[in-house]
């Protein structure tokens, strides 16, 4: 006897988070309580991402219902073998405890309990992103699940890091042969064969090594066949002669990051890491070098998700850039260091008397105003950025859909860098597994013009390093 189809009851937040979830349950049936439709109707107004998602859900539901006369039998869901059911009558089932009957979450629990009694032969599951609702549902003996169809990885610790160690004797057992030499760019490509492992484009491979092989690092350029790669030596940005706007890499991962940030062939870079690992400083140093010195880009655009850590400070007056200024403290702090207007003494720094310090501070502000633009994510739709370097700070707070909207704004000659720490997500219903930053790291790892590095070692201060470990 064939196993009965499962019946999934969808909470409102699942639909708000992923409008296409209606088409992701394969052969199983879906059920929408009337309170969910009421909550969707209440959330459709506005220009927020949630409101847009709600309107998209409404369009999907309207399209599914078009021409349907028998709602009791369910509505076929295209691309699946399941059917969609709406609550057609009152399902009153007493809750085990004296809970507020009018609260939406409790009404959904009541519906799920009623469906279990109405269909004892089927497994009825409540799907919700609300942790507290999942706890209450399990306390009542219900089968409750998180919505995981949009999870990029099951375990964030297994997320692609961008660098991969090899054994100390790897280079002895896998000799390199010169495959190509580009004199103008000073690049030498080597052919590496008989490799029984999967490496992605722009992944860094290294060995601790001994003697002549100590600290060897190469970057994978492309794969010729399942066991043969083209690789090239990396540029050593730990060497003071290779400083970028007065900044040198302080560890191996920072060196890899600068190789990606400074490479004109890499259009999309993602940097993950804990606070103090140097994500913003390295990116801004590479930005100033390529915008001011090399003039590779017309200007830089910095943006971020405006999600407060504590209480919202409310309405901010002024222009778009003035409204964004309080969110850009990290950028300004690092610009002060790089231009020498603070106590850091970067490339533009003079360090001396007060007049020179004032001059350096003015340079920093001019750079910020004229060559580094601060933009809000709210006004990105419909735009096309030509020959720009776009920096997305705190990218872990963006959803996959928001990330797609932003990346597709890039026009010819544009490079995009996404920075973030997936351990510090402040957006409701986003987790390490379904963050937009996690999504793009995994999605772009196969593209030859994208690169990713997870920064591990903190370089801010001994206090910050200890806090990351102990707190």
From TrEMBL:
Family: Belongs to the PhoH family.
Calcium among keywords: no
Keywords assigned by UniProt, alphabetized: ATP-binding, Nucleotide-binding
GO cellular component, one term: cytosol
Gene3D superfamilies: 5'-nuclease, P-loop containing nucleotide triphosphate hydrolases
Database matches in PANTHER family: PIN DOMAIN-CONTAINING PROTEIN, PROTEIN PHOH
GO molecular-function terms, A-Z: ATP binding
Record Pfam families: PhoH, PIN_4
Residue ranges constituting the PIN domain according to the UniProt record: 6-135
Species of provenance: Thiohalorhabdus denitrificans
SMART domains in the cross-refs: PINc
Entry keyword annotation includes Nucleotide-binding: yes
Protein name per Swiss-Prot or TrEMBL: PhoH-like ATPase
Domain of life: Bacteria
């Amino acid at each position: 006897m064939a196993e009965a189809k499962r019946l999934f009851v969808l909470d409102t937040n699942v639909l708000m988070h992923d409008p296409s979830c209606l088409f992701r349950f394969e052969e199983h049936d879906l059920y929408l309580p009337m309170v969910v439709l009421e909550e969707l109707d209440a959330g459709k107004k506005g220009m927020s991402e949630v409101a847009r998602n709600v309107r998209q859900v409404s369009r999907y539901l309207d399209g599914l219902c078009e021409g349907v006369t028998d709602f009791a039998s369910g509505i076929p869901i295209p691309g699946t073998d399941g059917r969609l059911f709406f609550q057609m009558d009152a399902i009153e089932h007493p809750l085990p405890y004296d809970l507020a009957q009018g609260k939406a979450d409790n009404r959904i629990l009541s519906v799920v309990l009623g469906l279990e009694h109405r269909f004892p032969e089927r497994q009825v599951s409540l799907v919700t992103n609300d942790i507290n609702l999942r706890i209450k549902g399990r306390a009542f003996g219900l089968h409750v699940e998180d919505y995981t169809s949009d999870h990029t990885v099951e375990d964030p610790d297994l997320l692609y890091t961008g660098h991969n160690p090899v054994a100390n004797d790897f280079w002895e057992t896998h000799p390199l042969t010169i495959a190509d030499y580009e004199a103008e760019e000073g690049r030498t490509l080597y052919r590496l064969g008989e490799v029984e492992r999967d490496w992605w484009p722009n992944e860094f491979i290294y060995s601790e090594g001994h003697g002549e092989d100590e600290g060897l690092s190469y970057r994978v350029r492309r794969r010729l066949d399942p066991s043969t790669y083209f690789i090239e030596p990396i540029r050593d940005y730990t060497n003071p002669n290779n400083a970028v706007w007065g900044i040198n890499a302080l560890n191996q991962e920072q060196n890899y990051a600068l190789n990606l940030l400074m490479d004109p062939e890499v259009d999309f870079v993602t940097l993950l890491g804990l606070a103090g690992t140097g994500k913003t400083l390295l990116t801004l140093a590479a930005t100033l070098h390529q915008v001011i010195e090399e003039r590779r880009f017309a200007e830089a655009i910095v943006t971020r998700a405006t999600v407060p850590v504590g209480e919202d400070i409310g309405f901010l007056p002024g222009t778009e850039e003035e409204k964004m200024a309080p969110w850009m403290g990290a950028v300004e702090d690092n610009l002060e260091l790089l231009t020498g207007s603070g106590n850091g003494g970067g490339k533009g720094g003079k360090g001396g008397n007060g007049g020179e310090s004032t001059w350096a501070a003015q340079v920093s502000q001019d750079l910020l105003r004229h060559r580094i633009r601060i933009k809000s994510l709210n006004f990105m739709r419909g735009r096309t950025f030509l020959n720009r370097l776009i920096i997305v700070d705190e990218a872990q707070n963006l959803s996959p859909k928001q990330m797609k909207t932003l990346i597709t704004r890039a026009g010819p000659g544009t490079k995009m860098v996404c920075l973030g720490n997936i351990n510090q997500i402040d957006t409701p219903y986003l987790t390490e597994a379904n963050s937009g930053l996690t999504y793009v790291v995994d999605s772009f790892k196969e593209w030859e013009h994208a690169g990713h590095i997870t920064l591990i070692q903190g370089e801010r201060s001994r206090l910050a390093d200890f806090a990351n470990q102990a707190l």
